[in-house]
């Protein structure tokens, strides 16, 4: 067994370049000019410099967004390289013995590659944007500085189509109208371009949430006309190819749920690819995808380093399996060592197709077991933990379910990872048919050397927690840390976006080092920003164990 130390982080200040506020270009349609839609015309943003101290105002680190005062999307306007949440994070981790917090600024504007926007107003003056804080009043944000520039171009063109074709925006009070929401996603996957040019030339996938049950509705012709308008002006045969594809989602529910269950591709390519974490990933519009792809890619690259070679990994709340597949591809077993195995557990059945497509491009030379299960990870969690020495959890904002936390707590009390002694861990033989059906892999690829997880008496030694909720993250990570035989922290990473409470965190525990005395563990903590966010890393004198 070899122990190695990670060198101290070198942190430098790298500020984003100042960009002038983006101006959407006019798109000329058949007999329709951009000026015919009043909602497209906007004044230049103005700032009250008297209310801002000279020390805090710098063009490179200010948002410079016209919509900041009314829009609920961003919470900080000045000093974006000095986010206020870092102060809270510094205090929180200092109480855990982690100090010396530093950070490095990355891309501060134009980082959002996926946006869900409400469509309200009238056909003469449509409003496309986010809700005002605490209300359901939509704030129009055509010049959003957080959006990838091509999202703003797509919104501008969509407004023109609404005006030209008399599309009725949704009325939430009456339940009437035609267009409820729009989801716009940008893919930078284009191998025909140099890597440095791919981001700025990203193609846009548009998903129109239509207020009808299916294609048989009376308004379906108007939907097709709107899609054709967009495709004609910015499709592959236009002067400026912007759109990757145009989808429709049919939704008639009066609830706050944005998407319904029925999707249909109207125009363009079906598969939406992105290269993240060293692998090609396919994401359907119904699949969950990270808005800040650059920050997420950076997080994955760092996360991968904390997974030992040859591990058996279970990825809970896996979605389309992006985290698990990236780990399996990059932390493959070295020659002569045990094969890496991966199990992904996800409750959303819509993620299955995306996982299968991503798996089709999985490197063929990597020989490992890969299974994807469509079930709830919080039901019988011990079954999913058994047979894996690395657990990855990526829960929703509310955090990890209590049943899973309880299971992790029981495992942390075991001194020997291969011989659990807890009566709770020694589960009985399962006979319930619905549980047995859920345990069967919906998607699976077997390696040359099969692994029987049910009989393999290996239990988690490493826990990696990826979160998008700062408050639930703090609560969950304190839960195992307060145990008598604690899982001691050896790595912490987080990516805190500047939205209203939106964040990513990556926290990892090592069960083997729990016997170390607190006084003998030295921790270093560093932070680097990745596109409107921060990636924080902490380390003890024992970072990882080479088996």
SSE blueprint and pairings:
Blueprint: E1 2-4, H1 85-94, E2 114-121, E3 126-131, E4 138-140, H2 149-165, E5 179-187, H3 195-198, E6 203-210, H4 220-234, E7 243-250, E8 262-268, E9 273-276, E10 279-282, H5 293-304, E11 312-316, H6 322-330, E12 341-346, H7 351-360, E13 369-374, H8 381-385, E14 390-393, H9 402-412, H10 433-439, E15 443-445, E16 462-469, H11 470-481, E17 488-495, E18 502-510, E19 524-528, E20 535-539, E21 544-546
Parallel strand pairs: 6-7, 11-12, 11-14, 12-13, 14-16
Antiparallel strand pairs: 1-21, 2-3, 2-5, 3-4, 5-6, 7-8, 9-10, 13-15, 16-18, 17-18, 17-20, 19-20
Helix pairs in contact: 2-4
- What's the CATH superfamily of the largest domain, by name? Vaccinia Virus protein VP39
Largest sheet: 10 strands, mixed
Instruction: State the domain count.
Output: 2
Q: What's the CATH topology label of the largest domain?
A: Rossmann fold
Distance between the termini: 6 Å
Strand order of the largest sheet: 15-13-12-11-14-16-18-17-20-19
Anisotropy-based shape:
globular
Output the CATH class name of the largest domain. Alpha Beta
Helix vs. strand class: alpha+beta
Q: Rg, please?
A: 25 Å
Poorly predicted spans: 1-36, 38-57, 333-337, 415-425, 481-505, 511-547
Can you put this structure into words, describing what you see?
This is Methyltransferase small domain-containing protein. The protein is of the alpha+beta class and 547 residues long. It folds into two domains: 34-49 and 58-63 and 112-274, Beta Barrel (OB fold (Dihydrolipoamide Acetyltransferase, E2P)), CATH 2.40.50; 292-546, 3-Layer(aba) Sandwich (Rossmann fold). 20% of the residues lie in helices and 22% in strands. It has eleven helices and 21 strands. The strands form four sheets. The protein has a ten-stranded mixed beta sheet with strand order 15-13-12-11-14-16-18-17-20-19, with helices on both faces. Strands 4-3-2-5-6-7-8 form a seven-stranded mixed beta sheet. A two-stranded antiparallel ribbon has the order 1-21. β19 and β20 (535-539) form a beta hairpin. α2 crosses α4. The chain starts with a strand and ends with a strand. The model is unreliable at 1-36, 38-57, 333-337, 415-425, 481-505 and 511-547 (pLDDT under 50).
